[in-house]
Structures are given as C-alpha cells and as structure tokens.
Amino acid sequence: MEKMKTKIGQRFEGKVAIVTASTQGIGFSIAERLGLEGASVVVSSRRQKNVDEAVEKLKARGIEVYGVVCHVSNSEQRKNLIDKTVQKYGKIDVVVSNAAANPSVDNILETKESVLDKLWEINVKSAILVLQDAAPHMQKGSSVVLISSITGYLPQASMAMYGVTKTALLGLTKALAAEMAPDTRVNCIAPGFVPTHFADFITSNPTVRKAVEEKTLLNRLGTTEDMAAATAFLASNDAAYITGETLVVAGGIPSRL
Ligand code: NAP
Description:
CATH topology: Rossmann fold
Strand order of the largest sheet: 3-2-1-4-5-6-7
Number of helices: 8
CATH architecture: 3-Layer(aba) Sandwich
Radius of gyration: 17 Å
Helix content: 40-55%
CATH superfamily: NAD(P)-binding Rossmann-like Domain
Order of helices and strands: EHEHEHEHEHEHHHE
Largest sheet: 7 strands, parallel
Bound molecules: NADP nicotinamide-adenine-dinucleotide phosphate
Distance between the termini: 30 Å
CATH class: Alpha Beta
Number of strands: 7
C-alpha cells in the first residue's frame, strides 16, 4: 500500500486526552495522533514496562505525554488514572475507551460463565466505569469515543460472544450520548481487521488474512493509523454536530445490523 501523506492539523491544542489500553496497537496510534495534533495525552495499560516504553516513544515524537498503569477492571487503578490526569493537567477533554478482551474462541453456548463474565467486565462494564470516574471532570465541548468492532454488526464464529459485547457498545454510545449531552459528545468507531497482537490469530494466518482482505472493497486490512484518524475526527470539533453515532472503519466490509 502506498503510504498516504496526511498533513496533521492541531485540532487538540490545549486539550487533555485519556486513551485506555494505549501502549500498543490501535490505542497507541490514537494517543500518538491526538498528541501530534497538540493534545496532552495520558496513556495506560496493565504493565508498567509497556507504559514506560509507550511514554518514551511518544516523547521522542515531541508529544506531551503522561503514563499511568491501569487495568480497566481494577477500580483503584481506574480512579488513579483519572485522579493523576486531573492532578497533572487539571481537566479532561477527550476519553477514548479502547480496552477489550477476547479470551475464548468457543461457541456462545459452550462459553464458560467465567469467560462470559470477563468479556462483559472488560469490554462493556469497564468502559462505563471509566466514564463514571471521568465524567465529573469533563469539560463543556468534551468528547468520548468508544472502540467497538465490525464484529459488533456481524458476530462471527470464533469471536461471536466478543462480537456481542461490541454490539452492546453501539447501544451504549446512543444511551450515553443522550445522557452526556449537550456538554459531551459520545461516538464510536467500529474497526475492521487490523494486524495487531490482538488480531494475530486471524491476520497472521495467510489463508484467513487473504479471505478477510477479500471481504473488504479496498483489498487490504486496516492500519492502526486508519483507526486513529477516524477517532481523532470524532473527538475533534470537526465532528461538533455528531453525537451518538458509530463510524465503521472497515474498508467497505458490510455493516448493517
Ligand atoms: P493490541 O494491539 O493487542 O493492544 C492491546 C493494548 O491493550 C495493549 O496496550 C495492552 O497493554 C492493553 N490492554 C490489554 N488488556 C487491558 C486491560 N484489561 N486494561 C488495560 N489495558 C489493557 O489490541 P488492538 O488490536 O489495538 O485492540 C484495541 C481495541 O480495538 C480493542 O477494543 C479491540 O476490540 C478493538 N478492535 C481491534 C481490531 C483488530 O483487528 N485489531 C478490530 C476491531 C476492534 P498491556 O498488555 O500492558 O495491558
């Protein structure tokens, strides 16, 4: 693929952005994009080493960045993420809820209860709880972006229950948009397939990868930068009249419910 040269704007000058699960993959690229556009970004994930490495990489790109360890299902760590952000930067303008788990490839009817609990807890409940902590600090004109998935529209075998939790985020987007209006907009992106660690079990198998590429109209997998660009758009004032919407970023893979 020819790398497109995009002139990066400065839409987030003076803004403070938190991105969960942002030390690699899509979350990292989102943090990088928001930072390159002028935001002070707070990156987080479960492991201190990953947080430190991400902070160093972003600093090297001239980004104002702060790192906090936060496993999204740990209430103390969630509270600490918000408290540290507010202590350091005084406010929150953007929250991107990006953390997810896909612990099982079982059919739904064979999925253990403990796995069902984990899927709901990380993919849905933690997103809500992060926002409960963040909301009191969010500014007028602030914005939330939830990261769903194309599988939210069409839960596929091997990712069916994961897909159902991602469908829930489409409803959560609508519900929170109403609840947080008019001061905060709430939108969502539904990525197609992106070769990250998370999607390795699909994208590293050449046959499966080819089948996925062929499902797109653009004949390629997505990139983390594609997802970051769409997220930055929704989080920015360019999307000032958009709330409660999900933007599918999947190269044309069909996405009707
Ligand atoms: P990834 O490259 O594997 O990165 C996952 C990141 O999340 C890492 O920084 C990891 O760091 C962190 N993390 C994992 N569990 C966490 C937890 N419980 N709490 C906090 N941080 C956690 O994954 P990705 O592909 O970018 O996925 C990001 C989001 O995109 C997910 O919501 C996923 O569902 C969605 N998505 C991905 C694809 C795709 O094809 N890749 C498609 C559709 C949607 P630590 O290990 O240090 O915690």
